[in-house]
Design a protein that fits this description.
The structure holds 2 protein chains of 2 kinds.
Chain A lengths: L17 H4 L7 H15 L1 H10 L11 H5 L8 H6 L2 H6 L6 H13 L6 H5 L6 H15 L4 H13 L7 H15 L17 E4 L3 H5 L1 H14 L3 E2 L12 H4 L2 H17 L4 E4 L4 H14 L8 E3 H10 L13 E3 L3 H4 L5 H11 L3 E2 L25 H6 L2 H10 L3 E3 L3 H13 L5 E3 L1 H8 L9
Parallel strand pairs in A: 1-2, 1-3, 3-4, 5-6, 5-7, 7-8
Chain B lengths: L1 H5 L6 E6 H7 L2 E7 L6 E6 L5 E5 L2 E2 L6 E7 L5 E7 L2 E6 L2 E2 L6 E7 L6 E7 L2 E6 L2 E2 L6 E7 L6 E6 L8 H5 L3 E5 L2 E2 L6 E7 L6 E6 L5 E5 L2 E2 L6 E2 L3 E2 L6 E7 L2 E6 L2 E2 L6 E7 L6 E8 L2 E6 L2 E2 L7 E2 L3 E2 L6 E7 L18 E6 L2 E2 L6 E2 L3 E2 L6 E7 L2 E6 L2 E2 L6 E2 L3 E2 L5 E8 L2 E8 L4
Antiparallel strand pairs in B: 1-44, 2-3, 3-4, 4-5, 6-7, 7-8, 8-9, 10-11, 11-12, 12-13, 14-15, 15-16, 16-17, 18-19, 19-20, 20-21, 22-24, 23-24, 24-25, 25-26, 27-28, 28-29, 29-30, 31-33, 32-33, 33-34, 34-35, 36-38, 37-38, 38-39, 39-40, 41-43, 42-43, 43-44
Classes of the chains: A mainly alpha, B mainly beta.
The complex binds iron/sulfur cluster (SF4) (2 copies).
């Protein structure tokens, strides 16, 4: 079912982004060469070179990539082409490339690849495209060439340890305000702050206190009703997200992760449960922890999908009446391909909803939302390109006929809502938590 | 220590409050806070009309608030909390308010003797600090984190010097952050500042700084170390000195620098460095190899290392011994669960001079040395109850709630603050009876 894109060829036109356009003005081929040489030494050029040289250009990865498929198989969007336009010439020329080349490389690395790793599953050698593209991003970061919105987010992480410039007092205020709000839902809810020795530290991403505080209220309803011994820190480290991981600023990524882990250890909690976010999970469980020298997070981190699965399986929350509108489920790359939570996600969906319709392909073969990998964080200038480059997702969702798409990840949630709007699909996204509070049984002691 | 000597070390048991009774009386009773000497126990209670007040040893404050949090006892047993009413925050000490009111108040900090209180505040849309109710006249676009000098007379906070338009990455990279000490900002600004700390003589302030997106170092009183590094962690002053140590990242890995010069070997990671009380020794958490954690003392890592984490080192009073919480998982790659523990994983214990206690626990609090430095104890959790463990041996009594025990000055007795059967007790118990 092909959806028409208004204008096939580069319908988004030339995108202006001061983070790329202004910053390359300060570069010279000499400076670029110097920075890249140093960067490659640290990255271990052997690994990159082996990956690049192992590729036999068979093109099997192309059909895996939603940007390639959505742009009518434009060969420049093929995964291998993304490497061919970025890391190949960098390695071949030993870093001597032009500022214009860096601008194009940055555009590809930050806005045309979601680091979703779907292509790696189709490559006979399993070449890790995400690793190569992340290495390109690291180089761009070291050259100071990063999309403006993404860079601003990395700055926010650096100052506040959260993604949205949330000030220390605003965070505390949100916790207290959400407790007040939740009093309208259940009787005597508590949002515990700094409860030392609680079982669980619940962590969220910056956009929740900033724009979607009701999600924190809903989390509070679930926690209270399920009888979880939980807490939030009042101090930095509450945000689990990490856009510095995607901008290429490893040092800030590590600092943000350290704050998160140390908050949990300071509060003496046994587990961290995180809200419905995918990239945050990757940053804690895969990338950020490793940069710090941690094989695994020092305190186990449980993603919301698994948490809800456990609550439902063990009867900690019960369902009053299942959600009756048809739903489909988007599998977020970072917790499905990256963590294997797809069966749990289906358990949760079926436990909550009457009419669940699979997208095809699905589970670990699902297409990325095209918001992930920091692409949506590159901001409004790139929105059109982002939605046009994910026509396959629109087709996939439309085919289900379901009006609701469950998206257990913040970036997927926003990105898919954009896709829905652009292609006029008449659908809506929902988090699991929103459906849970709609359909759960409120025990007598919490009834108003 | 003097204060501790004055506590009641003779009365074996004092039954202070019936917490269960409080729970029956009020719709909600929040977390409990015990005073250092164990004589008082406080909580926040919610009234029928959804307002909040405090209850200290059963004494309920008649005044109620819309919000109330950040409960603390000073070492001399004054009771402090932050209260919110009619859109204003106020700090209360023993039910008496500071005169000044705030739009926000947080990061409640006490000087070591508890006589001085500092908070970060927002007032008239600008941010700063209030020390003992004297609010800085100079206030800023934002303020984060607070440091109170050891003598309790000076305060410092990280400040944003200029307002920026949303998304002004270039303005930000010019450097709009610095430190303000007693309300006066340093002349120099930076892209970032973190980890603000005072010197032991209360005269100097140090922070981590980032000059641009790539170069990090330490700044003292606004003057930076000559050398820049790929990354740094928070600085620490040496006792009785103005020397500073900080972990720094070179191209070979993490090492420890003193006054800007790297002096230790390099490690995969190095953080949470601590000086011994006599200032002669340094201990820090290190990862000698990827995914293994231990303590290095004067650059010599312990022989044992742990898979998950090691928490900040603690020196004995005689500066000779070091203890730390350690954590190990037998199957670190096993799928964890939110509600249950995976057998063999997340095992907490204490290691002293590199040797772990034989047992492990569900959770372990920071180790505490006896005044003579010969014994180590810790609050531990086992099967959902809290115990005191001494030198690896778990105590006889499990409690519903337990605060860190305190050694008597002679090291012979322990002050135990605990909840048993829904009642809060203060007990003094000879060590051999634990
Ligand atoms: S977006 Fe995904 S499938 Fe496409 S190149 Fe990047 S990692 Fe591969
Ligand atoms: S599938 Fe693998 S080998 Fe083939 S072109 Fe893609 S990256 Fe190269």
């Amino acid at each position: 079912m092909a959806l028409a894109v208004k204008q096939k060829e580069k319908a988004w036109g030339k995108v202006l982004d001061a983070g790329l356009d202004e910053t390359i003005k300060k570069l010279t081929p000499e400076k670029i060469e110097q920075v890249i040489k140093k960067a490659l030494e640290k990255m271990g050029p052997g690994r990159l070179k082996t990956m690049v040289e192992t590729c036999i250009h068979c093109g099997l990865c192309s059909e895996a990539c939603h940007t390639y498929l959505s742009n009518d198989r434009d060969p420049t969007f093929a995964p291998v082409a993304k490497v061919k336009q970025t890391m190949w010439p960098i390695l071949k020329n030993k870093g001597r490339v032009s500022p214009e080349f860096i601008r194009r490389a940055a555009e590809i690395a930050y806005t045309e690849c979601n680091l979703c790793k779907r292509c790696s599953m189709y490559c006979p050698f399993g070449i890790d495209m995400a690793y190569i593209i992340l290495s390109v991003r690291r180089i761009c970061h070291l050259l100071g060439v990063t999309p403006l919105y993404l860079q601003d987010t990395a700055h926010s992480h650096a100052v506040t340890m959260n993604q949205m410039w949330v000030k220390q007092d605003d965070w505390i205020d949100t916790l207290q305000w959400q407790e007040e709000e939740t009093r309208g839902e259940i009787k005597n809810p508590i949002i515990p702050i700094n409860k030392e020795g609680a079982d669980i530290m619940y962590s969220v991403i910056g956009p929740e206190p900033k724009f979607q505080a009701h999600l924190m209220g809903q989390a509070a309803v679930i926690m209270n009703v399920a009888g979880i011994d939980w807490t939030y820190p009042s101090f930095d480290g509450w945000d689990n997200s990490d856009m510095a991981m995607y901008s290429g600023d490893h040092e800030i990524m590590g600092r943000v992760k350290r704050a998160h882990f140390e908050a949990a250890m300071k509060l003496k909690v046994k587990k961290i449960v995180m809200g419905e976010c995918g990239h945050a999970f990757r940053s804690i469980y895969d990338v950020g922890n490793r940069w710090l020298g941690l094989r695994m997070p020092p305190v186990p981190v449980i993603h919301a999908i698994q948490f809800y699965y456990e609550l439902l399986r063990e009867g900690r929350i019960k369902i009053k009446k299942k959600f009756d509108k048809p739903v489909t489920l988007h599998d977020p790359c970072n917790v499905i391909r990256g963590r294997g939570l797809h069966e749990m996600a289906r358990y949760v969906t079926n436990a909550l909803c009457e009419d669940f319709r699979e997208m095809n392909p699905n589970k670990e073969y699902n297409f990325c939302c095209n918001a992930g990998g920091g692409v949506i964080n590159c901001g409004p200038p790139w929105t059109k390109k982002r939605v046009i480059s994910n026509r396959v997702k629109a087709e996939q969702m439309k085919a289900t006929g379901a009006p609701i798409v469950i998206t257990p990840c913040h970036n997927c949630h926003s990105g898919i809502e954009d896709v829905i709007k652009y292609y006029k699909l008449g659908m809506h996204t929902k988090f699991f938590s929103q459906i849970i509070v709609e359909v759960m049984e409120i025990p007598e002691k919490f009834k108003l | 220590m003097n204060q501790i000597a004055e506590w009641d070390w003779d009365t074996k048991e004092k039954y202070i409050a019936d917490i269960n009774e409080w729970r029956k009386k009020f719709p909600v009773v929040r977390g409990l806070v015990a005073s250092d000497d164990g004589e008082k126990i406080a909580t926040v209670i919610q009234t029928e009309d959804n307002r909040f007040t405090t209850c200290v040893n059963g004494d309920v404050w008649e005044e109620t608030f819309e919000r109330l949090w950040s409960l603390k006892f000073t070492p001399d047993n004054k009771f402090i909390c932050l209260t919110y009413k009619d859109y204003e925050w106020a700090l209360a000490v023993d039910k008496e308010f500071w005169e000044d009111r705030f739009d926000s108040a947080w990061n409640l900090t006490l000087s070591p003797d508890g006589k001085n209180i500092a908070i970060n505040v927002k007032k008239e849309e600008s941010y700063g600090v209030s020390l003992n109710g004297n609010t800085w006249e100079n206030r800023f676009v934002d303020a984060r984190d607070i440091a109170l000098s050891p003598d309790g007379t000076r305060t410092a906070t990280l400040i944003q010097t200029k307002r920026l338009k949303e998304g002004d990455i270039f303005g930000f990279q010019e450097g709009i952050w610095t430190v303000a000490v007693d309300g006066t900002p340093w002349d120099k600004t930076f892209v970032n500042v973190w980890g603000v700390t005072f010197s032991p003589d209360s005269k100097h302030v140090a922070v981590e700084v980032r000059f641009n997106l790539y170069d990090y170092t330490i700044a003292i009183d606004g003057k930076t170390w000559e050398k820049v590094y790929n990354c740094v962690w928070e600085p620490l002053f040496k006792p009785d000195s103005n020397d500073i140590i900080a972990p720094v990242k070179t191209s070979d890995g993490w090492t420890l620098a003193i006054n800007g010069q790297p002096v230790w070997d390099t490690y995969v990671q190095l953080w949470n460095q601590r000086f011994s009380p006599d200032g002669r020794r340094i201990a820090a958490i290190v990862a000698p190899e990827y995914g293994r954690w231990t303590i290095a003392v004067d650059n010599i890592p312990w022989n044992n290392s742990w898979s998950d984490a090691v928490l900040p080192p603690i020196f004995s009073p005689d500066s000779k011994r070091v203890a730390a919480v350690v954590k190990e998982s037998r199957n670190p790659f096993h799928m964890e669960s939110a509600l249950h523990n995976v057998e063999g994983n997340n095992r907490y214990s204490i290691a002293v001079d590199g040797t772990p206690w034989p047992g492990d626990f569900e959770m372990v609090w920071d180790p505490i040395f006896s005044p003579g430095s010969d014994k180590v104890l810790a609050k531990v959790e086992k099967n959902g109850k809290y115990f005191i463990a001494i030198d690896g041996r778990i105590g006889k009594h499990g409690y519903e709630a337990l605060w860190n025990p305190v050694f008597s000055p002679d090291g012979e007795k322990l002050l135990i603050r605990c909840v048993e059967g829904g009642r809060y007790y203060r007990r003094v118990v000879p060590i051999h009876e634990i």
